[in-house]
Amino acid sequence: MPRARWTLEQAYRQALDFFGGDDLRAEVFVHRYALRDLEGRWLEATPEMLWQRLAQHLARPEKDRGRWQQRFFALLAEFRFVPGGRILFATGNPRRATLFNCYFIPIASDSVYGITRWMFEASKTYSAGGGVGTNIDVLRPRGARVRNAGLESSGSVSFMEVFSTLTGVMGISGGRRGALMITTRVDHPDILEFIRCKSDPARSRVRNANISVRVSDAFMHAVDADAPWHLRFTTPHETLVRQVPARQVWDALVEAAWLSAEPGLLFWDTIQRFSTTQYHGMEVQGVNVCGEVPMEPYGACNLGSLNLAAFVRQPFTPQADVDWEALETAVHDAVRFLDNVIDVGAPRHPLRLQRLESEKTRRIGLGVMGLADALVMLGHRYDGEAARRWVETCFAFLKRHAYAASIELAREKGSFPAFAAEAHLRQPFLHTLPAELQRAIRRYGLRNAALLSVAPTGSISILAGVSSGIEPIFALQYLRHVADKAYRVWHPLVQRYRAVHGEEAPLPETFVTAHQVDPLARVALQACAQAHVDQSISSTINLPEATPVATVARIFRAAWQQGCKGITVFREGSRSAIVEPLDAAATAFATEKASPVGVCTFCELPPAAPGKGA
Predict the structure, then answer these.
(1) DSSP secondary structure, 337-397, as one string
(2) Separation of alpha carbons 114 and 111, rounded Å
(3) pLDDT tens for each residue of 193-237
(4) What is the pTM (predicted TM-score) of this model?
(5) What per-residue confidence (pLDDT) applies to 267?
(6) Residue 126 clears pLDDT 60, i.e. is over it
(7) Is there a contact between 16 and 23 (Cβ–Cβ < 8 Å)?
(8) What share of the chain is helix, strand, coil (3-state, %, to 5)?
(9) Which of 214, 304, 450, 521 could form a disulfide with 268 if both were Cys (CB 3.0 to 4.6 A apart)?
C-alpha cells in the first residue's frame, strides 16, 4: 500500500498537534528526523510514525520479528528510549546515509599519502552523514626536516586548517554539516601551538573542528612537581627533543579553555586503563567527535539514550521513586536494539574498514538523557550529596543490567568476533562487575566489546522534552536559535511541575540551573557516573563570565583526580551562543544569566559551544 505523503506545512501542523503546540520540538522532528521520499515529500508527520519505522526495521535480525517489533515500539514510545540522530534519520531511509553518528579515522602515516588518504576517507564519511575523530600527533612538528621541495615541515597544526576547511565544505543540506574532532598528545613538540590555535575564535581558521589534548598522568604529576616536560618526535631523519616547564603547558591549556572553551582535556591514561578493549588489535587510539566513545581505528559509535525522567513515578511528591523494573526491561531491550543496529546498518558504512571494525567489536553506546529532570522529580538538588548517591545507584544499575543483557545475547547469538574471555576479564573495568556476571562472561561470552557511553544528546533531548545527557538544566526559560529561527522556550519540567502543584506554586530549590550548580560538585557527579561507564561521558561545565582562570584549573585537576576521562568548560561570553537565557526581569521563572549548555558541535545540533569528551 502506498504511503501517505505530506507537504511541509501539513507535516508540521500534525507534529505541532502531537507536541501540544511546542513549536521547537515540532521543528526539530519535522526538519531533522521525519522520513522524506527522494523528492522531498514528508512520509512521516508524528513521532509515532518514526517509532513504527524504527521498530519494524530493527526487528528484522530477530527470528520472532513480530514480537520484537512490538517490544521495540514500546521501548521507543513516549521517548522512553531515544536512539542517536543518525539511527532516527537513516533507518529505512532510501538515501544512502550511515546509521552511526561518528567514526575514528587515523592518519595512516606522516606523508602526503597518509594525509590525502585521510581526506578521502573523511570525505566519504561526511557524505554519508558521519562525523570523524582523528589524531594529528602522527604528523611531524613545525621545523622538522623534510626531503621534498621544502626544507622543513610547516608542522602538524598547519594541517588542521585544511582538515577544518574540508569538514566545512562537506556539509549536508538541512542544516547538518560535517564534523571533526582533532586531538594531539601532550608531549608533541607542537603542543603549545595546538593549544592556542582557537584561543581567538574570531581569527581562528580551525572553525569546523572540536579540539582536545590527550593528557597523561605523567604530565599531571610533572605539573604538580613544577618539573620540566619533554616534548618528543622521531622522524626517519632525526629525533626532536625539546624541554619546557610542565606548568607552562598547563597554564596555556587552562587559559585557552577559559578564553575560548577549547581545548578539552582527555585523560588518556585513565581512558586506556579502564577501556574494555585493550587486546587483539582493539586498543583505543582516539575518540569520536564529542569524545564519549574512545575507540580503535575505524571504529564507529552506535548511540542511544534512556530517558531517565520517563521512569520516575509520582514525581514532585515525597513518594517519588524510579520504576526500576520498567527501567531494567528498557535496558535489556535497548541493548538488543543497538546490537541490531550493527547488522541493519552494516551495508551503510561509508568505508569497508568501518564495517569490519563495527562487526568485529559490536561496540554500542547506551547512555542517558533527562538525568537532571529525574533528580528534580525525585526531590534532589543536582549538586547535592543525595543526587550523587542516586547517580551512583542508578549507573551501577544500568551497568549491571546492560552487561547482563549482552551476556544473554551472547548465549543466543554468539559473542563479538574478537572476544577472548581471559583477556577481556583481565580489563580492570570488568572487575567492577558483580562476581556472578564475571562468571557468566567467562562461560557464555559477551555480545558487545563495550556497552555504555553518555553522549551530549542535543536535539534528541529537545525532541524528548528533557535535559541533555548528564548536564544540569540549562535555564528555565530561554531563547534557542535553530537555523534562522529563535524559539522562546520554557523547560518542559516547569510545566509538568505546575500541572501537579498549580500554576501559582513556587518552584522548589531543586529546580537548579547550570549557573547555580557548584562546578566542583558537577565534576563529582560526573565522576560518580564515570565509575560505572565502560566508555566515556561527554561533558561541559558551564561557568559565569566572571569566573577566574584559577577556577578552570581547579575543575581540570579535580576531574583528573576523581577518575573522569576528560572535561570541557564553557565560560559565558567565550563563544557566541545558540542558547540565550532571558533577562531575569522578563519572567517570573527566569534564573540568573547563564551560558550555553554544553552541546556537541555535531552529535545533535550545530552549536557555538562544544561539549566533548569526558
Answers:
(1) HHHHHHHHTGGG-SSHHHHHHHHHH---EEEEE-HHHHHHHHT--TTSHHHHHHHHHHHHH
(2) 5
(3) 999 999 987 788 899 999 999 999 999 999 999 999 999 999 988
(4) 0.93
(5) 98
(6) yes
(7) yes
(8) 45, 15, 40
(9) 214
State residue 601's pLDDT score.
39
Give the H/E segment covering residue 557: helix 549-561
Selected catalytic residue, list 27, 44, 193, 292: 292
* Residue count (the chain): 614
Residue type at position 470: I
Helix (H, G, I), strand (E, B) or coil at 303: strand
The CA–CA distances, whole Å, from 242 to 170, 188, 223, 224 equal 37, 9, 17, 20
Query: Which residue is catalytic, options 135, 193, 197, 290?
Result: 290
DSSP 209: -
Which triple of cell numbers denotes residue 384? 547535592
Give the separation between CA 293 and CA 299, rounded to whole angstroms. Answer: 9
pLDDT for position 4: 82
Specify the pairing of strand 102-104 against strand 300-301.
antiparallel
Which member of 93, 135, 208, 288 is catalytic? 288
- pLDDT, one tens digit per residue, over 146-196 is 877 667 899 999 999 999 999 998 865 444 567 999 999 999 999 999 999
Which three three-digit cell numbers place residue 97? Answer: 546515509
pLDDT beyond 90 at 604: no
Residue whose entry in the numeric block shows the C-alpha cell 539511527: 87
Structural domains of the chain sorted by starting position, each given as residue range(s) with its CATH number in brackets: 1-45 (no CATH), 102-287 (3.20.70.20)
Please check whether residue 36 is in contact with residue 10, taking contact to mean a CB–CB distance below 8 angstroms.
no
- Report d(CA 389, CA 386) in Å as an integer: 5
Rounded to an integer, what distance in angstroms lies between the CA atom of residue 444 and that of residue 457? 33
* Residue range 488-512: mean pLDDT, rounded: 90
Q: Check if 290 is active-site.
A: yes
**Contact 175/188 with Cβ under 8 angstroms?**
no
Alpha-carbon span 124 to 377, nearest angstrom: 44
The span from the CA of 347 to the CA of 364, in Å, is 17
- Is 325 among the residues known to form the active site? no
Annotated catalytic residue 412? no
Instruction: For residues 391 and 447, give the distance between their C-alpha atoms in angstroms, rounded to a whole number.
Output: 26
d(CA 34, CA 45): 7
